[in-house]
Request: fold
Amino acid sequence: MQRTKTAPPESGGAQRGERLMWLTHQRVFYAGLLGAAAERTMGGHGVYVSPAGAPPNRLCIGGGAWQAGELLVVPPQVPHRVESAHPLIFNLLIESESVDPARMPAFMQHCGPVDAPAFVRRMHDAHAHLLVASGRGMNFEGFDFDALFFGEPLAPRALDARIRKVIDAINADPAAPASAEDCAASVHLSFSRFLHLFKQETGMAFRAFRAWKRARSLLRYVRQAGTLTDIALDTGYPDSTHFSHSIRQVYGLKPSDILAGSRRLALHDAAGGFRH
Reply:
């Protein structure tokens, strides 16, 4: 998902066979390169974990002091930077609308370094398990994401049926030009009522939510051939300039660097199969 500028792929550390991404509508697991990223702002609950035996990662929240830890937790929409001394990093993203924040595991209800060694071991074990399956050419359809990483299903978020309908439509086609006015009309709400209810139900403003889903959809294209302009249009951006600016705001990296860092990544996309 990201390109490293501190250690090229051939120099050891993260080897080709260690890198994979499991992508579903509501979850992402990424084991790959962490580039020299600028500040990033993700739309999901984020977790960063160091590989076994690697030095702790470092985290800077919103321009504050750097903090170090084997496990770093970042809530949705929190600007942050991450640094790693090891080329490989493990990253989980849990979509905010899919889980009840008050019923998430205790360590996920923090921001910054967290001491949760049992979860770290589970993350390492899950990575090893998925590597074996990926190496055998298996798809991940039969795996339970939450059970693998958390030991049990995460409690779902209760949503107003009208907001759920809009969310499902955006998730089904993030590239669609879904304006707030159109979405409000589709569920028979006034524009102002829709915006208020959407933020109340999801914890995110509609515009930020839509921008995140569009940027997140780039992950499906990281192993596909095509120009940046092609990918920009396929993901719903009007041009490559807007595409590059938006992606850098979310991931802290240029789209070209994300694609370059994904060349040796095994991608397991629940909606699009397995690409090695």
Q: What stands out?
A: The chain has two domains: 9-156+255-275, 161-251. The radius of gyration is 18 Å. Residues 180 and 207 are 8 Å apart (CA to CA). The chain has a mean pLDDT of 90.
